[in-house]
Design brief:
13 helices; eight-stranded mixed sheet; 538 residues; globular; 28 strands; alpha/beta
Length: 538
């Protein structure tokens, strides 16, 4: 398996493949990781992904936790988004420079035995029915690398995308942006980001683990060499005093594009991250969307390379992830254009809408879930489905196929230890959750033992069974564990999120729901598993 690009997307994909034991090589044209990075914010969904990849703890140590987003206009405060209101395991944003994220991911990837080759440039490649043959240049030497599959995670100017001839349509913004990382002791709270939608232009103040990142927009081409003078001028208009920003650690300028690849796959070659989509940095969606691309794609590639699943498994990557990027690009574009408007009438209308959003909890809640990417779903994917359901009303209880499964606390019947449902994602397999009713009937027990035996024989490394007993189920009604994991709903959290009936819930390795049905639909579930995860012929 060959991955081009050692950014967060490529590294997360490599970690995902190595968790399955897939031999993986990542190449990158840079001799060393860049010490600078535009990407900064890590949203709640990315933190769940990092927890599953076992890298969250070191990333948290390198980060600053942000609990809110505050927005101001010419006349003062407009709007605050309280991130802690999220119903999620990690209801905040971590401010962590991309360079720090990459360092942690590289350590994890190498610890898992992954190969990373630097100063290696992809020249070209060809593919046929047997695999992909890529020509790679290292210094003056050119070698051919053979792989079954190739993923281009090589950024906006992707060589892989260009070689495939895949269009990258979109627009360029007229504004120019300046960025400065400074050791400034700002007068604002450093547990939140601050956005200033001023008549003279946009200014963002983002707390770093040490110091602040300042980003400002301008319709004029920045003067060179770059200096802190434009920032001092903009901040003086906000604060009334000339700030002492200190010696900048990094000064940069950039422009913004909004582009989306027409396709994410061509036969044995895939695109992920910025190679597939690029957008304004407002909202901090780019790196987060790339990480979710990797989390979605890695298990599919791994199962396919192990001989499981048909072409539909690989087709589902574009079918699931491209609509997510399309929606994200539209939302970020609207946010960017609203933040950069100049006409006084439009600015007054925007400010009024922001004040209204701040006063309406339901609007704030929707904004939060969208920004955090917790509401991303794959309900239209052909890879997810409901089994036959006699109780149509149950469709309104619990997640739908394609949804991210909510987390819940569960207690082991055997040890009494508390666990989180999302903790199962550390094992990169499908997890079948067999939810027992409060007073389990005989057929529920029969299905439990039958599935335990069948899954153990035919899907040992692809599907694990977890039985979940209701909180109020009497001890004598809870089946004995044997070789099957049995957890009890803790304080009703599972029933609150999933309903209280006997059901089958199949959680994919990326935490999204693949299949759901009443317990009596075990045969239909097995048919689904054979169709999606069955051994491939030939």
């Amino acid at each position: 398996m060959l991955i081009v690009g050692a950014g967060p997307t490529g590294l997360a994909l490599g970690i995902g493949l190595r968790r399955h034991g897939i031999h993986c090589c990542i190449i990158d044209r840079l001799a060393a990781p860049s010490p600078y990075s535009r990407a900064l914010g890590l949203h709640a969904r990315s933190l769940e992904i990092f927890e599953a990849l076992d890298v969250l703890a070191p990333i948290r140590k390198a980060s600053r936790r942000l609990k809110a987003v505050s927005v101001y206009g010419d006349k003062g405060f407009l709007f605050e988004l309280d991130l802690t209101a999220l119903k999620a395991p990690y209801p905040w944003v971590l401010s962590c420079p991309q360079s720090e994220v990459e360092a942690v991911l590289i350590d994890r990837y190498r610890m898992l035995g992954g190969e990373l080759i630097r100063s290696a440039e992809l020249l070209d490649f060809r593919q046929d029915g047997s695999g992909v043959q890529a020509r790679i240049r290292q210094g003056a030497e050119v070698q051919t690398f053979n792989a079954e599959l190739l993923v281009g995670a090589d950024g906006v100017g992707s060589t892989v995308r260009e070689q495939l001839g895949i269009g990258f349509k979109g627009v360029d913004y007229s504004e120019h942006f300046l960025l400065a990382d400074v050791p400034w002791d700002a007068p604002w709270s450093n547990d939140r980001s601050h956005g200033f939608l001023r008549e003279e232009g946009l200014l963002l103040a983002l707390p770093l683990p040490k110091g602040w990142r300042l980003i400002m927009a301008s319709r004029e081409t920045p003067e060179t060499p770059l200096s802190l003078a434009p920032f001092s001028e903009r901040l003086t208009s906000i604060l009334g005093d000339v700030p002492d920003l200190g010696e900048p650690r990094w000064l940069s300028q950039f422009s913004v594009q909004r582009r989306l690849a027409q396709h994410y796959r061509r036969n044995r070659v895939f695109l992920a991250g910025d190679a597939a989509h690029v957008q304004s940095p407002l909202g901090a969606q780019g790196m987060n969307t790339g990480l979710a691309d990797a989390f979605n794609l890695s298990w599919k590639l791994a199962f396919y390379l192990k001989g499981f699943g048909q072409g539909a498994l690989l087709d589902s990557y574009e079918q699931e992830r491209r609509p997510v990027a399309e929606k994200m690009l539209y939302g970020v574009d609207m946010l960017s254009r609203a933040s950069l408007v100049k006409l006084p009438m439009l600015r007054r209308s925007r400010d009024s809408l922001l004040k209204l959003a701040g006063s309406r909890r339901n609007i704030s809640s929707r904004l939060l879930r969208t920004a955090s990417q917790l509401d991303v779903h794959y309900r239209n994917s052909p890879l997810v489905t409901c089994g036959p359901e006699a109780d149509v009303g149950w469709r309104h209880q619990g997640p739908l196929p394609g949804d991210r499964l909510p987390d819940a606390a569960l207690k082991s019947v055997r040890t009494g230890h508390l666990h989180q449902l999302h903790g199962l994602l550390r094992k990169p397999v499908h997890h079948l959750l067999l939810q027992l009713s409060e007073s389990p009937e005989h057929n529920e027990r029969l299905v439990m033992y039958a599935l335990s035996d069948r899954l153990g024989q035919e899907y040992r490394e692809r599907v694990h069974l977890t039985v979940i007993a209701a909180q109020a189920t009497a001890d004598e009604d809870v089946p004995r564990e044997g070789t099957t994991r049995i957890w009890r709903d803790h304080e009703g959290e599972f029933a609150s999120a999933f309903g209280d009936q006997g059901r089958l819930w199949l959680m994919r390795p990326d935490g999204h729901l693949a299949y759901r049905a009443p317990v009596s639909n075990a045969d239909d579930l097995l048919s689904y598993l054979e169709r999606v995860l069955g051994k491939r012929e030939g």
